[in-house]
Amino acid sequence: MEDLTAKIAVHDQQIKSLEARMKTVEDMRQGINELRVLIERQGSNIDRLTEIVGDIGERQKGHESRLDAIEQKPAEKWERVAGQVISLVTAAIVGMILAHIGLV
Protein backbone atom coordinates (compact mmCIF):
# COMPACT_ATOMS: atom_id res chain seq x y z
CA MET A 1 0.00 0.00 0.00
CA GLU A 2 2.85 2.33 0.77
CA ASP A 3 4.19 1.64 -2.70
CA LEU A 4 0.85 2.65 -4.18
CA THR A 5 0.73 5.82 -2.09
CA ALA A 6 4.25 6.72 -3.24
CA LYS A 7 3.30 6.14 -6.88
CA ILE A 8 0.20 8.30 -6.46
CA ALA A 9 2.32 11.04 -4.87
CA VAL A 10 4.77 10.86 -7.81
CA HIS A 11 1.86 11.00 -10.29
CA ASP A 12 0.35 13.96 -8.45
CA GLN A 13 3.69 15.74 -8.61
CA GLN A 14 4.02 14.97 -12.33
CA ILE A 15 0.47 16.19 -12.95
CA LYS A 16 1.21 19.46 -11.14
CA SER A 17 4.41 19.85 -13.17
CA LEU A 18 2.51 19.18 -16.41
CA GLU A 19 -0.21 21.64 -15.41
CA ALA A 20 2.42 24.32 -14.77
CA ARG A 21 4.06 23.58 -18.12
CA MET A 22 0.66 23.66 -19.82
CA LYS A 23 -0.05 27.07 -18.24
CA THR A 24 3.29 28.30 -19.60
CA VAL A 25 2.42 27.02 -23.07
CA GLU A 26 -1.02 28.68 -22.93
CA ASP A 27 0.58 31.97 -21.85
CA MET A 28 3.04 31.71 -24.72
CA ARG A 29 0.21 30.98 -27.17
CA GLN A 30 -1.66 34.04 -25.92
CA GLY A 31 1.49 36.15 -26.36
CA ILE A 32 1.96 34.81 -29.88
CA ASN A 33 -1.65 35.69 -30.74
CA GLU A 34 -1.15 39.21 -29.42
CA LEU A 35 2.01 39.55 -31.52
CA ARG A 36 0.15 38.29 -34.59
CA VAL A 37 -2.51 40.96 -34.11
CA LEU A 38 0.15 43.65 -33.70
CA ILE A 39 1.97 42.48 -36.83
CA GLU A 40 -1.26 42.57 -38.83
CA ARG A 41 -1.86 46.13 -37.64
CA GLN A 42 1.70 47.06 -38.60
CA GLY A 43 1.12 45.62 -42.07
CA SER A 44 -2.00 47.70 -42.46
CA ASN A 45 -0.15 50.81 -41.22
CA ILE A 46 2.68 50.17 -43.66
CA ASP A 47 0.17 49.89 -46.52
CA ARG A 48 -1.37 53.17 -45.44
CA LEU A 49 2.03 54.86 -45.21
CA THR A 50 2.91 53.56 -48.67
CA GLU A 51 -0.23 55.19 -50.07
CA ILE A 52 0.56 58.47 -48.30
CA VAL A 53 4.14 58.49 -49.60
CA GLY A 54 2.84 57.81 -53.11
CA ASP A 55 0.41 60.72 -52.83
CA ILE A 56 3.20 62.98 -51.57
CA GLY A 57 5.35 61.92 -54.53
CA GLU A 58 2.58 62.79 -56.97
CA ARG A 59 2.09 66.19 -55.32
CA GLN A 60 5.81 66.83 -55.46
CA LYS A 61 5.87 66.11 -59.19
CA GLY A 62 3.09 68.67 -59.65
CA HIS A 63 4.98 71.21 -57.56
CA GLU A 64 8.17 70.60 -59.55
CA SER A 65 6.45 71.23 -62.88
CA ARG A 66 4.84 74.42 -61.55
CA LEU A 67 8.17 75.55 -60.08
CA ASP A 68 9.90 74.92 -63.42
CA ALA A 69 7.26 77.05 -65.15
CA ILE A 70 7.73 79.85 -62.62
CA GLU A 71 11.52 79.69 -62.97
CA GLN A 72 11.30 79.86 -66.77
CA LYS A 73 9.19 83.05 -66.86
CA PRO A 74 12.03 85.45 -65.93
CA ALA A 75 14.33 83.72 -68.42
CA GLU A 76 11.75 84.12 -71.17
CA LYS A 77 11.30 87.81 -70.29
CA TRP A 78 15.09 88.31 -70.30
CA GLU A 79 15.37 86.64 -73.69
CA ARG A 80 12.67 88.93 -75.11
CA VAL A 81 14.31 92.03 -73.65
CA ALA A 82 17.74 90.95 -74.93
CA GLY A 83 16.27 90.27 -78.37
CA GLN A 84 14.66 93.69 -78.47
CA VAL A 85 17.88 95.39 -77.35
CA ILE A 86 19.83 93.55 -80.05
CA SER A 87 17.22 94.56 -82.64
CA LEU A 88 17.38 98.20 -81.53
CA VAL A 89 21.18 98.28 -81.54
CA THR A 90 21.25 96.64 -84.98
CA ALA A 91 18.68 99.12 -86.27
CA ALA A 92 20.67 102.03 -84.83
CA ILE A 93 23.90 100.80 -86.42
CA VAL A 94 22.20 100.26 -89.79
CA GLY A 95 20.63 103.72 -89.47
CA MET A 96 24.00 105.28 -88.70
CA ILE A 97 25.60 103.52 -91.67
CA LEU A 98 22.81 104.62 -93.98
CA ALA A 99 23.00 108.16 -92.63
CA HIS A 100 26.77 108.19 -93.12
CA ILE A 101 26.42 106.97 -96.69
CA GLY A 102 23.78 109.58 -97.26
CA LEU A 103 20.85 107.38 -98.15
CA VAL A 104 18.71 108.67 -95.34
Mean pLDDT across residues: 90
Q: What class would the helix/strand composition place it in?
A: mainly alpha
SSE topology string: H
Number of helices: 1
Q: In terms of per-residue confidence, which ranges show pLDDT below 50 for 5 or more consecutive residues?
A: none
Mind telling me the C-alpha Rg?
Answer: 44 Å
Describe this structure in a few short sentences.
This protein is an all-alpha fold and 104 residues long. The chain is 96% helix and 0% strand.
What does this structure look like?
This protein is mostly helical and 104 residues long. Helices cover 96% and strands 0% of the residues. The model has no long low-confidence stretch (mean pLDDT 90).
Which properties best describe this structure?
104 residues; mainly alpha; 1 helix; 0% strand; rod-shaped
Give me the secondary-structure topology.
Blueprint: H1 2-101
